[in-house]
Amino acid sequence: MSDLFWLTDAQMARLEAFLPKSHGKPRVDDRRVLSGIIFINRNGLRWRDAPAAYGPHKTLYNRWKRWSDKGIFAQMMAGLAAGHGEERP
User: Fold this and answer.
1) What's the pTM?
2) 2 pLDDT band (50/70/90 cuts)?
3) Which residue range(s) make up the domain with 33?
4) How far, in Å, are 31, 59, 82, 84, 88 from residue 36 at the CA level?
């Protein structure tokens, strides 16, 4: 599928600071999983409808759930938005 969403190197570099460190067993490719999570959310799909290119839908959901519970995505949004808002008079 050519219409799949993939984070660029520049986008991943900006997100690296917000990603938790891996403990023990290495994680599945962060770029693939994050790209899949964004694709699912952007298109309003069910997890099980994720294209196979992003990996197993259960992996996408588990990562989304675990990182959401830990506030990782909220930290990403706040960090990326910092310094990019409108200045107030």
Assistant:
1) 0.84
2) low
3) 1-11+27-83
4) 8, 10, 25, 26, 36
